[in-house]
Fold this protein.
Amino acid sequence: MGDKKKKGKSRRDKGRDRAFLFFTAPGFILYSFFFIMPVLMGFYYSATDWDGISKNYNFIGFDNYVKIFRTGQFTDALFFTIKYTVLLVVLTIVLGLAIAMLLNRKIKGRTFFRGIYFIPAVLSSLTVGLIFNKICYYIIPVIGKALHIHALSQNPLADKNLAMWTILFVNLWQGLCIPTLLFLAGLQSVPTDLYDGAALDGASAWDIFRYITIPFILPVVSVVFVLTLKGGLMVFDYIKAMTEGGPGSSTRSVAMLIYKHGFTQNKYAFAIAEAIFMGLVVAAISAVQIYFTNKKKAV
Amino acid sequence: MKFKKLSAVMAALLAASSLLVACGGNSGGQDASGSEPENAAADETETESESEGEGQEAAASGDEVTLELLLTKTEIVDVMEQIAAKFCEENPGVKIDVTSTSDGATLVRTRAASNDLPDIMNTYPAEDFYKDMFRDGYFEDITDAEYLGKVNSTAMEMSNCDGNYYAVPMSLSTYGIYANMDVLEANGITETPSTWEELIADCETLKANGVTGFLLPNKDVGNVAQRFERTAGIINNDSNSEFKQIADGEMEAKDSPTLQTWCDYNEDLLNYTTDDHMGMDYDIAAAEFSNGNGAFMLSGTWMLATVQKNNPDANVELFAFPHPRGETTKVPVNIDTSFSISSTCADKEIGLKFLEFMTREDIAQMYCDADGNVSTIEGVEYNIPQHANMKTAVEEGNIFLTAVNFWPTGLREEIRDGCQMFLGDGDREAFFESSQEAIETIYADN
């Protein structure tokens, strides 16, 4: 009897496995074709001196990888990218959470504010960059002069110390929307009776945040962390639209450097080598992040 | 049973995908194998027979042949649309789709990589980038075309690639300083300066009257690069040899007369520019200049269209950039517009017909009037009063082919960051250091 049941179940299981296989296959094939293949081709081309157009090229082994550190450009760009990413991640989580908590309160016009805060997300990042480019030239200096703020009395994008912060501001202005939405959803999943209980026990606001809110939204924080990390390490469009890496090379991210070498200097294979190296850096950072996330989960 | 079917479907799918992959790999292998001429020939016959077939089909069914005309110069889109319409009128059954991009280099690169070049497009035959593509067989060889006889010999010489021709040069761009004559006249200056001292004296007069002398869009790193390249060429017509000496260690960047003069003249001009020059983009500077908020701007003949768009009443004149050390002044020229047809052109016969059409006197005249650059086609009258000085320079042969055609690929893009920093902070030592590194790196790579 039991055997029969088991057998029947396993047949059903088999059927289910097949269905799963069937559903997975198209994704797997597409992924292999559009993702794994290009990566392998990238490795192949990175060992050549291809200029991106010529029909002939030579194999030069690992020369391109050796060349990456011939000048300080890559290290400078990497340092900039990491600095930018750390700031972006920290500010996104802190500000996103703060805005989400405000929007989660029973305030007047809550739906209106929730809508308003989400608007930047529907614009393309290049458009946002170009709009702010004009704002920085026409509006910021006027405000800066009126308020006698020396630093803002000229285009902040022209100042090598302010340019990164300006780009970061624009990135946050637009990039906060989705994290805020995710945090808001996370906050709403916290059972209210826990808050009520804590309030009855006389817990302070900080204690409630620390011991009830944080544990519940930790998975969301983790998701936001990964998304923002990726966005920061690959930052390109805001910089392209606003400074093109300038003034000088003070806002040149790794993606901008790769673009410059690949598309303005015809060093296609070299740019691919740089991209692969950057890929390895991202992989290493992701490995560390996954290690810590798993550790947290185990506890 | 079901499972077998399913696995058969899966296997088929996998096989199909691997076939696709194999195809991709195969063509890559062919590319690498070095048997390129053979393949190119095979490809050509294939496309030819295809296009013939299409042509016959078109004739039989009355279908249209559609050719794409890509322009990487957005300011000529309007006139080219008119010319294309005229061409279609004279050639029933032909349709020309005019497309344009402001980021030509990237688009051409991507489309060449996917073997999807537009049927007809404007190329820059003097530049290495296009010369390499010509040699690789991306474009049709038109050396034997009769209408090339109508093109000015200087322009033909500039577009020669290993003794062959792949493009019809239509116009030469010249570079210099645009003057807003209304602004100058309002400040009592009636003539454009012809020496560096006169230029600075005019700027002093303007400054005393509270008028901006020069509009320098220094935020625009592409413009900074172009200004560096054109003026470095004016300072030393053979800048390439000088930079080569630096690359070979025979000279240091800090001792280079060209780089030193470049710094000197920019230090001069920065005294007469706006406070926010480091935050200014090219389009903003062009608009300010057109509207009389500045007297001078460094640019080439292509800017006239933009100026007139911004302010149809603008009274401007282009004059030669005077040599900052008082040596002979020559005007840098480049082939500005030239048309080529790709080897993947859907109907080469019509493509070639279009090139011929472009060299027809009335069409070339129509193009020249709208474009504003000096025409290279025989019989075309150059009626652009704003560029009269440039016409004289070209006629007198007081010109040189601009430096970018001699510099190794990427030098302009490598050196520009240092140039921009110098314009911002005036730190000469840092500029020489970054130039030294840029020159060494780029010459070593090419």
User: Anything to note?
Assistant: Residues 222 and 293 of chain A are 8 Å apart (CA to CA). Chain A has one domain: 67-298. The radius of gyration of chain A is 25 Å. Chain A has 13 helices and no strands.
